Amino acid sequence: MSYTTLVDAATLSRHLDDPAWRIVDVRHQLADVGYGERAYAEGHLPGAVFLHCDRDLSGPVSGTNGRHPLPDAARLGSRLGEVGIGPQTQVVVYDDCQGMIAGRLWWLLRWLGHDAVAVLDGGLQAWQVAGGALTSVVPEVAPTTFPVEAQDSKVDVDFVQTFLETSRMHLIDARSADRFRGENETIDPVGGHIPGALNRFFRDNLREDGRFKPAAQLRQEWLALLAGAPPESVVHQCGSGVSACHNVLAMEIAGLTGSRLYPGSWSEWCADCSRPVAR
Question: Please, what are the domains in the chain?
Fold first, then answer.
């Protein structure tokens, strides 16, 4: 059995010594890009390897392609192979920020054609609440070959601009409501949102304990938001294509499959002053 959306702490604990499983720590903070590596060194789940959001899960920034452009698929595939992820590996990814970064690696692996990837539901906090131990021991992993079979699961800025405010595309913005409105913008140089976008803050997918809401509840909430729009017409975005992956995951949990990601998101969109802005 493979896990393709979520894994709980109890299930993961039973597979800590399973060589077919690989745990990946992707803790990260936008304001402190060295945080994740320090946190990993201080203590991580047993057997977990570390991947960095900027260096491993993102590509070079040009100033016009967003804050976290997608990495080159072949380069990312090579890096995944280096940390022991092969075609049959069950990957479990976690962070300590309610799945915001974990969702990015979940989406990236699926983009590359690897479906056996799940987010640890509730993240590091849920692991510790369940009594799970941490270690500072860095595991020795045997490198392998990760096959890259890129999927049609993303759109680019030209697609967004072409189908802006049409029935062909239903844009969902995963940022907080105030940033969506253009208020309290401290990350990107321009406040506001892409015209026609709807707002679904990624944390609205979660219960108070940081775990995902039940699938039936997510389905009800997402169907209400989509108001009859088919899931395959949905394009997710956020500030830089990271937290938007959380909404892709939530729709998958809800059984609403086929939505896509706009990786450049608001940070790419607003880099060109000729593009329209809504507030």
Answer: 6-129 (3.40.250.10), 157-269 (3.40.250.10)
